[in-house]
Amino acid sequence: FKTKADFIENYDQPLMNLPYVVDREQRRILCQSTACLAHIGRSIGMFGSNDIESSKCEELLCEIYDLRHPFIAFAYNSGGSADEAKEAFGKIAGILKKLEAYLKIEAKNNGGQKVCHLVGGKFSAPDFHLFELLDQNSAAAKKLEISDDLLGEYPHLKAFKEGFEKLDENQFYLSSWLHEGLPFNNCVAKVASALDVGLYKRGQAAEWRGKGEITMNGS
To answer: Which of 92, 116, 148, 150 is a good FRET partner for 191, with 20 to 30 A between their CA atoms?
Structure first.
């Protein structure tokens, strides 16, 4: 992010923010989580097979981002107290209920089978965002002693998370430093700023420094 000024000037991107995607082929930079996920999904064929499915992907990305907000607000804009943590996870519960209801309908439409994909029975951008947040919120809830089983009351969400992380296609990522070697949050966050989902302390070793850039190609 230290190159922010250069990106703004060289790519004419006044909306520069984290996260961002550099599309060198089209020579442009895209910012904001939902826009980045949608762009990558479209670029690699993971944004639905038709207009209806694409719209469903967009809808889900927005809903899943709502799941992200309470945890991020607690991590960066709170005093880090136990009461504030409980309040944040109380807000998360309301959004989990909506996503649970969505997956219940998808499971019914799938003959009662467990659902590992949110749209069209195959990989799409919302799958990855939902798994990320279920994974992170579950770990944080346990660390903060909010709940040892955050998804215990949401069987379809739990089945999605467990099924998605068992898919062969995801094993390389889940066993790599991308999943195991990066903290959830920035070092100034009140939670999950260190690898153990705890607090990063100034002067502490940070093996993850310099590992935040991912390059993709079309081959």
So the answer is: 116
pLDDT < 50 positions in the chain: 219
For residue 34, the enclosing domain spans 4-43
Is the same domain home to 113 and 55?
Answer: yes
Is residue 197 one of the residues assigned to a domain?
no
Could you tell me if 8 and 94 lie in one domain?
no
pLDDT recorded at residue 214? 66
The answer to whether the CB of 74 falls within 8 A of the CB of 191 is yes
Q: Tell me the C-alpha distance between 150 and 139, whole Å.
A: 9
Quick: pLDDT tens for 66-113: 999 999 999 999 999 999 999 999 999 999 999 999 999 999 998 888
pLDDT score at 142: 95
Residues 104, 55 share a domain? yes
How far, in Å, CA of 73 to CA of 77, rounded? Answer: 5
71-78: long-range contacts (C-beta < 8 A, 24 or more apart)? 71/133, 71/136, 71/137, 71/140, 72/185, 74/190, 74/191, 75/185, 75/189, 75/190, 75/191, 75/192, 75/193, 76/185, 76/186, 76/188, 76/189, 76/190, 78/190
- 88 and 25 in a common domain: no
What does each C-alpha distance from 185 to 52, 82, 93 come to in angstroms?
A: 34, 18, 21
Burial call 172-193: b when 16+ CB within 10 Å, e when fewer: eeeeeeeeeeebbbeeebbbbb
